[in-house]
């Protein structure tokens, strides 16, 4: 069986920098025409000038012959000035601004501590149509880790949408039924990305026979009922839900340790994993919209004209891939996957 699709885009991706960047970029460019590149570097991408220079470093390691185009983002802080938003928009290369609540996830310590301090920037974004990408997790230590998304929606996202009704907003890597319901009920300016790992795994995967650091990411995997809600949203044909892998490589030794980093690496098989989900849901005919249309519509970008062909053919995921001078353990390392990209 074969499936030819418009070349897809990844609307949420971590590419890192330096030697790690060069290691992971080819996995993405083999599958995707464009990707929204997350700004949580160390130090973070705070300005348009930094985003443009990061873009050049990415382009420098794109394999020859690829037409891959990185779509850059800024990292929102308490102090992001409205002028920076306007510069970002005018650059033509910055396509969104990422909101990390301070302390919510990997490299988020420079994130927002007081949402009211971002209002000038959000107003500018609302005016110039630059989307806000939200890591929607409450950081209040009193909130159970599995309830952080629902708590953030209630405490921050609902009020934010009421205050900035024209702001384009993406609930990134939505993981819960509550998140899906929030996006469905919100106006057309609100959308969500969905990862392959949250569609394929529930939280049991973190404890299968022992603790599994390579199944740990943020937002953390949830109960089966939430996974089912995500599948329904992704495969249901709604234009509010589109593909964002949140592929997040970390060196093996930083995950297999007493306090392991959050992040699951899926770029090596991203489209193939989504094909598996859509096939299981008997919705392969809806994969093209989710992977190659709805995101472009939301961001106001043209559809890609090239295509990609998937074929039903077993292949075995390598045990590891190089990551700079270390290695990264990919999702489903050593296991067999049913879909592959045809050369
Ligand atoms: C991401 C990372 O490693 O940069 N980790 C993750 O678990 N998803 C950060 C993020 O997107 O939260
Ligand atoms: Zn992410």
Task: Write up what this structure looks like.
This protein has helices spanning 18-31, 48-59, 82-91, 119-128, 148-163, 177-185, 196-200, 224-235, 252-255, 270-280, 287-292, 294-299, and strands spanning 2-6, 9-13, 34-37, 69-75, 94-99, 132-134, 169-171, 190-194, 241-243, 307-316, 321-323, 326-328, 336-341. The protein has one domain: Alpha-Beta Barrel (TIM Barrel), CATH 3.20.20. α3 runs parallel beside α4 (119-128). β7, α6 (177-185) and β8 (190-194) form a beta-alpha-beta unit. With 343 residues, it is an alpha/beta fold. It has 12 helices and 13 strands. The relative contact order is 0.16. The strands form 3 sheets. The protein has an 8-stranded parallel sheet with strand order 2-3-4-5-6-7-8-9. Bound molecules: N-carbamoyl-L-aspartate and zinc ion (ZN). N-carbamoyl-L-aspartate (NCD) binds next to loops.
In short:
By secondary structure, this protein is α/β, with parallel strands linked by helices. The chain contains twelve helices and 13 strands.
Q: Please report the number of helical segments.
A: 12
Q: How big a fraction of the residues is strand?
A: 15-25%
Top CATH class: Alpha Beta
Average pLDDT value? 98
Largest beta-sheet details: 8 strands, parallel
Second-tier CATH architecture? Alpha-Beta Barrel
CATH topology: TIM Barrel
Structural class: alpha/beta
Distance between the termini: 15 Å
CATH superfamily: Metal-dependent hydrolases
Overall tally of structural domains? 1
Helix content: 25-40%
Numbering strands along the chain, what is their spatial order in the largest sheet? Answer: 2-3-4-5-6-7-8-9
């Amino acid at each position: 069986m074969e499936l030819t699709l418009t070349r897809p885009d990844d609307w949420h991706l971590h590419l890192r920098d330096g030697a790690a960047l060069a290691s992971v970029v080819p996995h993405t460019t083999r599958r995707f025409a464009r990707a929204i590149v997350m700004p949580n570097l160390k130090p973070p991408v705070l300005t348009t000038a930094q985003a443009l220079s990061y873009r050049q470093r990415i382009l420098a390691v794109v394999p020859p012959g690829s037409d891959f185009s990185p779509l850059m983002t800024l990292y929102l802080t308490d102090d992001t000035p409205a002028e920076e938003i306007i510069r970002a928009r005018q650059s033509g290369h910055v396509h969104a601004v990422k909101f990390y609540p301070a302390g919510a996830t990997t490299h988020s310590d420079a994130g927002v501590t007081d949402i009211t301090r971002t209002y000038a920037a959000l107003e500018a974004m609302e005016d110039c149509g630059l989307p806000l990408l939200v890591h929607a997790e409450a950081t209040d230590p009193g909130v159970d880790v599995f309830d952080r998304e629902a708590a953030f929606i209630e405490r921050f996202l609902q009020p934010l949408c009421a205050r900035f009704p024209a702001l384009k907003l993406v609930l990134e890597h939505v993981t819960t039924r509550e998140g899906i319901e929030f996006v469905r009920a919100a106006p057309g300016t609100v959308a969500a990305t969905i990862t392959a790992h949250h569609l394929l795994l529930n939280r049991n995967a973190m404890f299968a026979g022992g603790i599994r650091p390579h199944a740990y990411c943020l937002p953390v995997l949830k109960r089966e009922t939430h996974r089912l809600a995500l599948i329904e949203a992704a495969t249901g044909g709604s234009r509010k839900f589109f593909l964002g892998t949140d592929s997040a490589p970390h060196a093996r030794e930083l995950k297999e340790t007493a306090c392991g980093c959050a992040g699951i690496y899926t770029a090596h098989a991203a489209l193939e994993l989504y094909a598996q989900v859509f096939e299981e849901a008997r919705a392969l005919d809806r994969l093209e919209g989710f992977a190659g249309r709805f995101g472009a519509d939301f961001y106001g970008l043209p559809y890609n004209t090239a295509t990609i062909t998937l074929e039903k053919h077993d292949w075995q995921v390598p045990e590891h891939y190089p990551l700079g001078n270390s290695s990264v353990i990919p999702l489903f390392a050593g296991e067999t996957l049913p879909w592959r990209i045809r050369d």
